[in-house]
Amino acid sequence: MLTKTIYILVDCIAIINILFLLKAMKNNSEYFAKWLSYALKTAIVAILANIFVACSFNKISAGISYSLYFSSIDWIIYCLTAFCLVYTNHRRFSKRLAMPTMIIMVIDSVSIFLNLLFDHVFYIFETKDASGVTFYRTGFRPLYYFHLAVDYIPLAFVLFLFIYRMFKSYSMYRIKYIGILSVLIFVIVLNIIYMTAGLLLDASVIFYSVAGTLVYFCISTFVPRSLMSVSVGSATDNMNEGLILFDLNNNCIYANTFSKERFDVDEKTYNFKSEPIATVVNTLRSKGHEYGTHHYIHTVSSNGVITEEHYNIRYSELTDKKGRTIGSYFLIEDTTEDVRYLREIQEAKNIADAANSAKSTFLANMSHEIRTPLNSILGLNEMILRTAEDPQIMEYSESIRSSGNALLGIINDILDFSKIEANKMDIRPTDYNPHDLLRECYNYFHQMAEGKDLYYKITCDENMPSVLNGDNNLIRQIMSNLISNAIKYTKTGGVSVNVSCSKSNEKNTDLLINISDTGIGIDSKDIDTLFDSFMRVDEKENYTIQGTGLGLSITKDLIKLMNGNIIVESSPGVGSTFRVSIPQKVKDKTPLGKFRIHDDKKPEHVYRESFHAPTAHILIVDDIKVNLTVIKALLKKTELKIDTASGGDEAIELCKKYRYDVILLDHRMPAPDGIETFVSISSEGLNTLTPVVMLTANALIGMDVEYAELGFSAYLTKPIQSAELEKTLIDLLPAEKVELTEPE
Length: 744
Ligand code: ADP
Description:
Elements: H1 2-25, H2 31-55, H3 59-87, H4 91-118, E1 122-128, E2 134-140, H5 144-168, H6 171-197, H7 205-237, E3 241-247, E4 252-255, H8 257-263, H9 277-286, E5 292-302, E6 305-319, E7 325-334, H10 336-387, H11 391-421, E8 430-432, H12 434-451, E9 455-460, E10 465-470, H13 472-488, E11 494-501, E12 508-517, H14 524-527, H15 551-561, E13 565-571, E14 575-591, E15 611-612, E16 617-621, H16 625-634, E17 641-645, H17 648-657, E18 662-666, H18 674-683, E19 692-696, H19 703-710, E20 714-717, H20 722-732, E21 739-740
Parallel strand pairs: 9-11, 16-17, 16-18, 18-19, 19-20
Antiparallel strand pairs: 1-2, 3-4, 3-7, 5-6, 6-7, 8-10, 10-14, 11-12, 12-14, 13-14, 15-21
Helix pairs in contact: 1-2, 1-7, 2-3, 2-7, 3-4, 3-5, 5-6, 6-7, 10-11, 10-16, 11-15, 12-13, 13-15, 17-18
Bound molecules: adenosine-5'-diphosphate.
The site of adenosine-5'-diphosphate (ADP) has 21 residues, from helix 13 and helix 15.
């Protein structure tokens, strides 16, 4: 009785185990899991049938229980075969086999149940154990072997399939087949043991539960996990980085192919004293870091040629899911190419910097070389304009002036361009009245427009603020570029300029400048490159029109510098409109009122000195005689007392004799140059209170700051403009010696 009780108990435990398995598998939505759960459910029926066998009280009840048991084995095998086929990715195969196998299983099951009537598969006989307890066992008829075949042929087929798959599949998948195969063999072996051992009760059913557990373990944890470790191993071996893993005792547990190839790492002998990791760890520790990244240079010599390899080696700790340290790892990244690339970039940058500084020097020299003769040309031409009376000569002279000014414009453009490129263009905001700005723009260009028979209209919103704060010089430059282009590229019709302000808050506004012309227009395909440096549209067609292709590029950069914006609307043959908006501060928001053009421009050739200073005494120093002549001539009408010196030494001697009111000193002279002369004069304590003005043809970046730092009171760039020269002198000469002339 005890045997039966233990047996029933174990069967119950097996059922409970299967129920747990079924619960665990509930969330597994994979198709093969469905078949495994069917197999397990059928196994429950088989185990229950087995319990009924143990509890049978006569041959009929034992017969019914055995029939249920044998036929449920059929359906376990059916479900198991389906599971195996699906699991090994033979779904199409399993679909084809499903129907014939099911028919065979149904025939076998029906035949087993008919055994109750015909006894043709097995018969029941009674036997007793040593303590006299009755057991019902089965004896087999020949047809039983059909039942066995129905069970074992599909099993054998599945076994064969697994073995075949095992050899054919990639090594990393092999493990999954080995796992399931072992379980199947385990079940078959137990079944054979039962059949040959002649036990009183069939104990093999409980192993269905064990087998189910093993299969479940295989598909849910063991197989994916081993798959993962195999795949991770294979992936890291194919990595372009090195990976070396250490356990907590610093024993090397893994090194991928990269590490082995580059650093001869052998897992058995590799440790923290081996290179390159020894250097990495020691360097990090010397800097007080436990982990981190180190740049390691590996010198390799091959065929007598020594090369450097660069690696970034990261040393980190390895942690488990709970964050506990379980070892450490080194990740080795080859940065040789990056380092080479960076060096190349650095070299290219050095070359570019050198070229750029050569360009700046060249620009400085070119500016100097062009401005010096231009100074003489424009200066002497000014003298002709002031003195000539013959209208023909005055016309020629006027042409010299306008060509000279055009040349000066080009030089200024090139200089502006280089200033912007070197980020040396500063914004110098001042308060200004927009009408003044517009009048200047009118005066600069109205003659140019008249010369081409074009109308030139300037309008302005009466209600815009009367005083704005911003860099009016840069705005004037922007407007000049756009207006001169508009006139340049217009043959008939004319140019209109409109200025207004967007309605913004009390303190800030956007100055809106629209410049429209009825000129040749710009093709839409050229609009994108319009603002690129040195780009001219229709170069061939416009070659008669003077230009460098720098104007719009400078304009756009200046606008960007002031956080503004420019857009172009244009249609070829109709005209163009350039719309500019520049943020400005509002200083006085009272409405500006009507704009009236006072033509401030006196006829060019009518010169009138702005002051007289007969008692003032100045010194002009320049090594080029013609420059001295020009400046002296320009200042003739001011009645200033002028001394000239053609070199630094002569100037120093003169300074020993006289105390000048102002000294005008050329920069580039044979030794001593302007700066050296200035230093000598100051250090000898001569004319210490006299303002010194630097005369220079070098209008390059940052010179104003440089001269101011040296102690010069002002600087004038060549070609010297008469008005600017006089203004500087009015500012610097002692006020009591200057008598301003009334404007005419
Ligand atoms: P450029 O010194 O050649 O005038 P810009 O940079 O000022 O150089 O202008 C670039 C090109 O844009 C010019 O060559 C011209 O073809 C075109 N362009 C500029 N303004 C106008 C305009 N108002 N109408 C037609 N074309 C223009």
